[in-house]
Write a structure and sequence with these properties.
The chain has five helices and no strands. It is mainly alpha-helical and 108 residues long. The protein has one domain. The chain is globular, with a radius of gyration of 16 Å.
Length: 108
């Protein structure tokens, strides 16, 4: 499970990194695989450790964030019952997508 997620993230990065960034089909296919894995790990019949499940969530969330799908990334990472990597990824993602006012604008 974890190896599939690593492989999908690697394919997504390869498809979106120049000079091969022309392969949007490859990128979409990798994202779809990560979506499927994210749904699959939520099933009760899957025999995977919590570590494997969180690894899949963090890897999928990373790909979704790189694709600009911030809400999907945050939903995948989720904070309820999350681990440190998940919380760190969520905070980092939120900080990187929120505009901040410069300190100089607070001076009157």
């Amino acid at each position: 499970m974890r190896i599939k997620a690593v492989s999908s993230l690697a394919r997504y990065i390869a498809a979106t990194t120049p000079p091969s960034s022309k392969s949007s089909e490859g990128a979409e296919a990798a994202l779809e695989e990560l979506r499927d894995l994210s749904v699959e790990i939520e099933g009760d019949d899957l025999e995977a450790s919590d570590r494997d499940k969180w690894s899949v969530r963090v890897l999928a969330g990373t790909a979704f964030a790189r694709a600009g799908e911030v809400e999907e990334a945050l939903e995948t990472l989720g904070l309820s019952g999350g681990n440190e990597e998940s919380v760190e990824a969520c905070v980092s993602l939120l900080l990187s997508t929120r505009p901040f006012t410069s300190p100089s604008s607070f001076k009157t």
